[in-house]
Design goal:
By secondary structure, the protein is mainly alpha-helical. The radius of gyration is 19 Å and the shape is elongated. The chain starts with a helix and ends in a 5-residue tail after the last helix. The model is unreliable at about 25-30 (pLDDT under 50). It has a single domain (about 5-140), classed as Four Helix Bundle (Hemerythrin (Met), subunit A) (Up-down Bundle). The chain is about 85% helix and about 0% strand. Helix 1 packs antiparallel against helix 3, helix 2 runs antiparallel to helix 5 (about 125-140) and helix 3 packs antiparallel against helix 4.
Amino acid sequence: MNKRALFLIILAGFSGALGGVLVGRQVSAPPEAGAALHQLLHRDLDLDPRQNEQIEVLERQFSVKLQALQLEMRADNARLAAAIEAEHDNGPQVVAAITRSHEVMGELQIATLGHIFAMRKVLRPEQADKFDRAVVQALTADVR
């Protein structure tokens, strides 16, 4: 393997890893925050059977959307790697790949917030208050 090919492989791997880190930091709460929200919903809010059923449906629907968007983000990372490999610069293909990646990240953020608001609608007012505090805490965990 020549030095140029090795460099391109390393660059593509680095770009993919960097893209994953950026997506993780900008789009989603830390895993422990998501786990805390899940625990709050299923253990601490004393959901009645109807609420449990409604939230289970919402979680299944969101899971499908989440998987689809994650696949799109992986494909975007591959396109970004190919663009970097082709241009070796911040050229039009690289910019287009980054722009597309940001669009999907925005879709994920919108879908996540839609999911949170849909779950909130299932809750009674006192449950919604606790849920709201947990959501704000999850979103500001790195800020505080």
